[in-house]
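INTERNAL AUDIT FORM
Audit reference: QA-55
Scope: verify that the stored structure record matches its stored sequence.
Auditor: D.O.
Record contents follow.
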Amino acid sequence: MRAALASATAALATFSHTPRLDAELLMAHALAIPRETLLLSRLDAVVPDTFAPLLARRLAQEPIAYITGTRAFWTIELAVGPGVLVPRADSETLLDAAVDHFAKRPPARILDLGTGPGTLLLAALAEWPAATGVGVDQSDVALGFARRNAATLGTAERASFVPGDWADGIDETFDLILANPPYIGTIESLPREVAEHEPGAALFAGVDGLADYYRLVPQLRTVLAPGGAAILEIGATQADSVSALLRKQGFDVDLRHDLGGNPRALIATKAA
């Protein structure tokens, strides 16, 4: 086991930023045990035959989350697979910002625009057990994952998922609006594991990556409740451009950085 993990780590290091973690996650998945159990008690075990095919998929730069079928996010574990955007730790910046904003008054209704596998909505519902919410996405595949995740997490009665184009057709207001829209420019290059596997519709938004913000931002005022906050994920170079769009719609805007120090989330509140 130790030798197999070392060999896999060396092979994965040619492209992965986390080769040892990848190797351990694949081995744990092959053994159908948690990674912690692998590290604590199974490092001298025989390597299972199922490990080599999993490693081959990762060496072809398939996302590790697609191979294992899960991704941890915030305080929850989400089922993911081909056709949905893999949740990323950077997006937890939106939850951090929401927790700060609602420190004195928890949100009652939450809207997640572009919900994917339910990432932001289900994390928020785990944070605020009395809240309910709606997740919107254009992808039937993504909505299927979202509904399954809600059922697994025990929040199916508090979360509804509907097909839609951003906030079009939404006829109520929400205390918290979360959105991680596509923001990659079509001329930008991406790692193979992203470009060749994750859905382009969840990644790319015109040449400058701003196309979906132009559509989304004007819709926010009609669906944001008084005292609420709309929190949008942005690319690292987009803070000024998206802030200007929000201010044009009458919002006050604050910026949050992710753990890497990059601009990552804009918190929009209605100006007094």
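Auditor finding: record pair retrieved intact. Residues 140-153 form the longest helix (14 residues).
Action required: none
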